[in-house]
Design a protein that fits this description.
Distance between the termini of chain A: 49 Å
Helix content of chain B: 25-40%
Structural class of chain A: alpha/beta
Radius of gyration of chain B: 18 Å
Number of helices of chain B: 9
Oligomer: heterodimer
Order of helices and strands of chain B: EEEHEEHEEHHEHEHEHEEHH
Number of strands of chain B: 12
Strand order of the largest sheet of chain A: 2-1-5-8-10-12-14-16-18-20
Strand order of the largest sheet of chain B: 6-9-10-3-11-12
Number of helices of chain A: 10
Shape of chain B: globular
CATH superfamily of one domain in chain B: P-loop containing nucleotide triphosphate hydrolases
Strand content of chain A: 35-45%
Bound molecules: adenosine-5'-triphosphate, magnesium ion
CATH class of one domain in chain B: Alpha Beta
Distance between the termini of chain B: 33 Å
Low-confidence stretches of chain A: none
Mean pLDDT of chain A: 93
Mean pLDDT of chain B: 93
Low-confidence stretches of chain B: none
Number of domains of chain A: 2
Chain lengths: 437, 257
């Protein structure tokens, strides 16, 4: 089998129909992205950045191109995924926005806050779209971001001003059909002093293979605070590729809490750049995977200015024949003095065939910094198992409870109770169920 | 106070144990009857916690000799969870943190497993909540500790209170309290000691591992033992604890020599 031919055909199919119509917005950006996508080649395990993640199964997939009309599921069908405490919601079905399933505040109803589709924001000529879209997630050497951008016709647009404190926006991406590729796109602009939270949520109503290729851009202004939660609960056969690019201005705060249950292959690129002094980043990750899943997280924290703080915890629970990859790059540039950065990666392997590849990557070019990192891969702590057994729990129950706790420790940090509850139930299903409830 | 007539709960004879091939316990004889309170004192590293953990069934310790009979059954043949279910309880010197698991979930699981196994009705979360809150009152514990992860971020004293809460829930026949007093402030020590006294009966027994006489003012021991070098080298009444507090441990070795 000719791998090059297959991957070329895959890319051609992926790009067919992407060329922008002149009447649409962002034509220059999209044309440039299309050009780049055509020029780049698909990643293989020969690329350092993709050493552990072989996308060959994706390239063999015959994906249908994004379609304009899709049958919308009824509200009942997606009710299980709705977070009642988050009134603002944008729902996309196989990549298409569903006005009837969404709950978007009418324009001007919340002072300082704009929540709308990217298509509507482009049509209304919102300057923030032009100013930010495509600026953070570079298409120049990221093929999948380029493909996403070439297809950029719609998505989520959030602009928060100083008055819009504390709003949460739930973006729900529902896959209803097999073999469909969706290119979700989110742009969040938090202006100086603003506070906003984003929940990015991927779910599936069917068990077949499909592909999500997402790009999220978050611009955090001076003194602004953005909390970002990503929940990836795609089907076991899904392919999920995502790039999250964030820029944080002086004294801004950005947190990213990402939970993945895998899919056939998932790859999360998280790139956070410090664009001013005194910023604070928090990254929490959980990969909870089983079967044949491969879950790859590549994070890149770029301390480019002084007095930046970052804290990162990435956990993996790997069962069956699953494979987790974590590459945590932290760059402290020259002049980024007084940077205070910690990174911790803890993995638990639950079977002999489970596997994890982890690589901390610290590059420090400033001399007055505090950087700590640690990685552990192993089984559960014997002292913890013993402690629970002295309380009457069988060894199996003790192990299940500890595995649950290890994962729930990340999930519990999500500030939305209904989502915590639904994810905790899912963790429980895989750790003994009622036996430890 | 014991009259020495209670039935034998624990009978340890010539117990030897090692960890990673290093002998730690070197022949311990120790008998506890129902209704009694024993105190085990002794220098750091003498083997007090090792003794407690060996009896609780810690897999890292290898029993290399001797016997331990608990309420008529061979304790050493049982797994750690079977020992707990049959009424042996260890309050840890260093209670383990279990992030991500709510204390209430853990306590209910332990209660339902141990007491359910003794024929008591299992409690659902709501029933258990009422039940455990009553027990917490005894120890003047804030119910907020139910929602937090097990021992995670608890202060030293809070962890010890949580251990005694587990003792209160599991109703053991024999409780080993390994330095439960360390880390407790003066008021907490009194409250926890009163809690332990409240749980005592003619049918159960308590072994206190401690460095300080102060605890023994509240929970008055029938016997005080001194452990040194993996052996119980001296046994006396409660006055021995006062003497140890005044004179330290040095004189015991000299006296024995
Ligand atoms: N897992 C282990 N590996 C190596 N040595 C151990 C282990 N556990 C215990 N020991 C050793 O066994 C000896 C007895 O330890 P133990 O904890 O029982 O003492 P202790 O009497 O409880 O002391 P303390 O009063 O300080 O609590 C010590 O020398 C200790 O270092
Ligand atoms: Mg000790």
């Amino acid at each position: 089998m000719d791998v090059t031919k297959i991957s070329r055909e895959f890319l051609d199919a992926l790009l067919s129909g992407a060329a922008p119509v002149p009447t649409e917005g962002l034509v220059a950006l999209r044309s440039h992205a299309l050009e780049r996508a055509n020029a780049l080649s698909v990643p293989t395990t020969r690329d350092e950045e993709w050493r552990f993640t072989d996308l060959a199964p994706l390239y063999r997939l015959a994906l249908r191109k994004p379609v304009d009309e899709v049958p919308m599921p009824s509200a009942d069908v997606i009710a299980a995924w709705i977070a009642p405490e988050v009134p603002t919601r944008l729902v996309f079905v196989d990549g298409r926005f569903s006005p009837s399933l969404s709950a978007v505040p009418t324009a001007g109803s919340t002072p300082g806050l704009t929540v709308t589709t990217l298509a509507a924001a482009m049509a209304s000529g919102d300057a923030a779209v032009q100013a930010h879209v495509g600026k953070l997630a570079s298409v120049d050497d990221d093929l999948f971001a380029a493909v996403n951008t070439a297809w950029l016709r719609d998505g989520v647009f959030v602009r928060a001003g100083r008055g819009a404190a504390g709003r949460t926006i739930h973006c729900l991406f529902v896959a209803t059909q097999a073999d469909v590729v969706q290119h979700p796109r989110i742009l969040v602009v938090a202006e100086d002093g603003a506070e906003v939270a984003l929940v990015e949520d991927y779910v599936s109503l069917q068990e077949g293979a499909y592909c999500v290729n997402a790009v999220v851009e978050v611009a955090v202004g001076a003194n602004a605070r953005v909390r970002h939660v990503k929940v990836q609960r795609d089907s076991a056969k899904a392919f999920h590729l995502a790039t999250t690019s964030v820029s944080v201005q002086r004294d801004g705060f950005y947190s990213n809490l990402a939970v993945t249950f895998g899919g056939r292959i998932s790859r999360n690129n998280i790139h956070i750049r410090q664009d001013g002094t005194g910023t604070e980043f928090e990254l929490d990750g959980l990969a909870f995977i089983d079967g044949r899943s491969l879950a790859d997280t590549h994070s890149f924290v770029d301390h480019a200015h002084a007095h930046g703080r970052s804290r990162q915890l990435h956990k993996c629970v790997v069962a069956g024949g699953a494979h987790a990859v974590f590459n945590g790059r932290i760059l402290v540039r020259e002049g980024a003095q007084k940077t205070d950065s910690t990174q911790e990666n803890r993995s638990i392997l639950l079977s002999d065939k489970a596997h994890v590849d982890t690589k901390p990557q610290l590059e420090i070019f400033a001399d007055d910094v505090k950087c700590a990192h640690g990685a552990t891969v192993g089984q559960l702590e014997a002292e913890e198992v013993f402690y629970l057994m002295t309380r009457g729990l069988s060894e199996g129950t003790a192990r299940n409870l500890l595995t649950y706790g290890f994962a729930a420790d990340v999930v519990n940090r999500i500030p939305i109770a209904s989502i915590v509850k639904s994810l905790a139930a899912r963790l429980l299903e895989h750790t003994g169920g009622q036996e430890i409830a | 106070m014991s009259n020495g007539a209670g039935k034998i709960l624990l009978d340890v004879r010539g117990l030897c144990a090692s960890v990673a091939g290093v002998p730690i316990l070197k022949g311990i004889d120790f008998t506890v009857r129902a209704g009694e309170v024993h105190a085990i004192m002794g220098p750091n590293g003498s083997g007090k916690s090792t003794f407690s953990k060996v009896l609780a069934g810690h897999p890292s310790y290898e029993v290399t000799g001797g016997t331990a009979v608990f309420d008529g059954v061979d304790l050493l043949e049982l797994s750690a969870e079977e020992r707990a279910r049959s009424g042996f309880f260890l309050s840890f010197q260093y209670p383990v943190e279990v992030p991500g698991v709510a204390n209430a979930q853990f306590l209910r699981l332990a209660y339902n497993t141990v007491l359910g196994g003794r024929g008591r009705d299992e409690l659902d979360p709501l029933e258990f909540d009422d039940f455990v809150r009553e027990k917490m009152k005894l120890l003047e514990m804030d119910p907020a500790f139910l929602d937090r992860s097990v021992n995670t971020g608890f202060s030293g004293g809070e962890k010890k209170r949580n251990e005694i809460l587990q003792m209160a829930l599991l109703e053991p026949k024999l409780a080993f309290l390994d330095e439960t007093d360390s880390g407790l402030d003066i008021d907490a020590l009194r409250i926890v000691a009163q809690g332990v006294n409240h749980l005592r009966s003619a049918d159960n027994a308590v072994v206190l591992v401690t460095h300080y006489q102060r605890l023994l003012n509240y929970i008055v021991p029938d016997f005080v033992h001194v452990m040194d070098g993996g052996r119980l080298v001296k046994t006396g009444g409660r006055e021995l604890a006062l003497e140890l507090e005044a004179r330290g441990y040095d004189w015991i070795g000299k006296q024995a020599a």
